[in-house]
Structures are given as structure tokens and as C-alpha cells.
Amino acid sequence: MKINIKGTNLELTPAITQYIEEKIGSLDRYAENMEKDGDPALGHEIVEAFVEIGRTTKHHRQGDIYKAEVNLKIGGQIIRTEKEDWDIRVAVDAVKEDLKIELEKFKGKRNTKYKQGARLVKRALSISPLAWFKKEK
């Protein structure tokens, strides 16, 4: 998983960058099967995370002043979550939890579509009940 981090109205310190990479990078296990579809020899990955963190305003000192937004690109699909909180680390944790839930839903839908297709192929290949041979007496 490739993670791109952008800071808005906030200085990105190495500690914050490392924290984000650990939290968002831990979602890699949910997306690992989806990443195998890509060809790493071509130099591109299918799963990319675009993380934007920042302060919503410069003059407030209380309330929800930090925002964390993640756009997770899986092939042609985009999964997006956004949270605001009083601390940047709490906002990143909340975004991670939402992304985990959304990834599980996405993976479930993908598996369901695969199974539906397999059922259709199986039905198409099975012999019709009208084609059964009658037993001769």
C-alpha cells in the first residue's frame, strides 16, 4: 500500500508522519488480496492511500479543530472517510476504524459478486431437466 500524506495549516512532524503510516499502513492486511491483482513489475500498485490532515481554523483553540481525511484508491474504486476531532491522533484513529469497516464491506461485496458469477456459470453449464434421458422399460 502506498501512502501519500499532505498537511493543511499544520506542520508535518516526523512523529505525526510515522503515526499516520503505522495506523493507515495496518489496513494493508484488509487490502492485501486486492493488491495482488496489480502488476508490481509495471511500477504501479492498485491500493493507494491519500491522507490529508490539518487544522480547520487557525484561531480556535477548543473543540474539533483537527481534521483527518483519507481517500483509499483500490483499482478504479475510491473509499473516502473524513473525521474531525480535538486531537490529530484521535482523528486518525477514528478514520482508521471507519476505513476498516468500509474495506470489509467492499471486500464482502466483491466476494458476493464473484460467487454470483460462479453460480450463473454453473447454471449455464448444467444440463437442463428437459434433456434427461427417459429410462426404457
Summarize the structure.
The chain has a single domain, classed as Double Stranded RNA Binding Domain (2-Layer Sandwich), CATH 3.30.160.100. The protein contains 3 helices and 4 strands.
Structure in words:
There is one protein chain. With 137 residues, the protein is α+β, with helices and mostly antiparallel strands. The chain has a single domain (2-126), classed as Double Stranded RNA Binding Domain, CATH 3.30.160.100. The protein is 42% helix and 25% strand. It has three helices and four strands. The chain has helices at 14-25, 28-35, 88-125; strands at 2-8, 47-55, 66-74, 77-85. A four-stranded mixed beta sheet has the order 1-2-3-4. Strand 3 and strand 4 (77-85) form a beta hairpin. Helix 1 runs parallel beside helix 3. The longest helix has 38 residues, at 88-125. The radius of gyration is 23 Å and the shape is elongated. The N and C termini lie far apart (67 Å).
